[in-house]
Automatic annotation (TrEMBL):
UniProt name for this protein: ATP synthase subunit b
CDD domains: ATP-synt_Fo_b
Quaternary structure note: F-type ATPases have 2 components, F(1) - the catalytic core - and F(0) - the membrane proton channel. F(1) has five subunits: alpha(3), beta(3), gamma(1), delta(1), epsilon(1). F(0) has four main subunits: a(1), b(2) and c(10-14). The alpha and beta chains form an alternating ring which encloses part of the gamma chain. F(1) is attached to F(0) by a central stalk formed by the gamma and epsilon chains, while a peripheral stalk is formed by the delta and b chains. F-type ATPases have 2 components, F(1) - the catalytic core - and F(0) - the membrane proton channel. F(1) has five subunits: alpha(3), beta(3), gamma(1), delta(1), epsilon(1). F(0) has three main subunits: a(1), b(2) and c(10-14). The alpha and beta chains form an alternating ring which encloses part of the gamma chain. F(1) is attached to F(0) by a central stalk formed by the gamma and epsilon chains, while a peripheral stalk is formed by the delta and b chains.
Matching InterPro entries: ATP_synth_B-like_membr_sf, ATP_synth_b/b'su_bac/chlpt, ATP_synth_F0_bsu_bac, ATP_synthase_B_chain
Species of origin: Roseateles flavus
Length: 156
């Protein structure tokens, strides 16, 4: 057999195979590959869009955290100021209450001292009358000598 004839005969099934492949097999494969490429493109576009949305969401979350942090700091500062004001107010009230208690105690002490002085004056007057009675060896009438006893009380 001649090599040229053999090549020509081998070209016929090859050409038929290429024709059948191009006509029936290649279009569905190409269509499937194009569909797959389209899905991949859509997936990549969705991934890029999701990345952009994630970056935007992260930025918004960072801003919200910063705002919340600032508000928390402000609230803490306000709470500390309020606590200091409450403490100062409590100190003032305690000092005022202490001053009232001290004033009341002083007034009470003065009243007791005054009562004690009055009681001592009465006792001294009684003792003076008894002493004068013993000196004079007679009884001194307190109602008769009330003016004298009153002066004696004021002198004491």
């Amino acid at each position: 057999m001649n090599i040229n004839a053999s090549l020509f005969i081998q070209w016929i099934p090859f050409a038929v195979l290429v024709f059948v492949t191009m006509r029936f097999i290649w279009p569905p494969i190409t269509k499937a590959l194009d569909e797959r490429a389209g899905k991949i493109r859509e997936g990549l576009a969705a991934a890029d869009k999701a990345k952009a949305e994630l970056a935007t969401a992260n930025k918004a979350a960072d801003e919200q955290r910063a705002i919340a942090r600032n508000e928390t700091t402000k609230l803490l500062a306000d709470a500390e100021k309020r606590a200091a004001a409450i403490v100062d107010e409590a100190k003032k009230r305690a000092e005022e209450e202490g001053a009232k208690i001290v004033a009341a105690a002083k007034a009470d002490a003065e009243q007791q001292a005054t009562r004690a002085r009055e009681a001592l004056r009465e006792q001294v007057a009684v003792l003076a009358v008894k002493g004068a009675e013993q000196i004079l060896q007679r009884e001194v009438n307190a109602s008769v000598h009330a003016e004298l006893l009153g002066r004696l009380k004021t002198e004491l």
